[in-house]
Structure to design on (77 residues):
């Protein structure tokens, strides 16, 4: 009987630890979004990553070329 209680407590500890770590991650992301101007992240286009864009193609989402600084979607709005 005490073995079952021990297993239950171990699972509860693991569950609480998991929930706590997930809450910490969500809070960190929320703080990062809150601290950025207008909630926008810089350099989110795939064209900025040399690992993802080895051919120098334009971003599939906004059409930005790797050598361009600003996302074309931002200037259109």
């Amino acid at each position: 009987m005490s073995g079952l209680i021990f297993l239950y407590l171990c699972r509860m500890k693991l569950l609480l630890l998991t929930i706590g770590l997930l809450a910490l991650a969500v809070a960190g992301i929320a703080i990062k979004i809150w601290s950025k101007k207008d909630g926008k992240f810089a350099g989110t286009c795939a064209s900025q990553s040399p690992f993802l864009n080895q051919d120098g193609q334009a971003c599939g989402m906004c059409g930005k070329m790797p050598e361009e600084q600003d996302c074309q979607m931002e200037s259109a709005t």
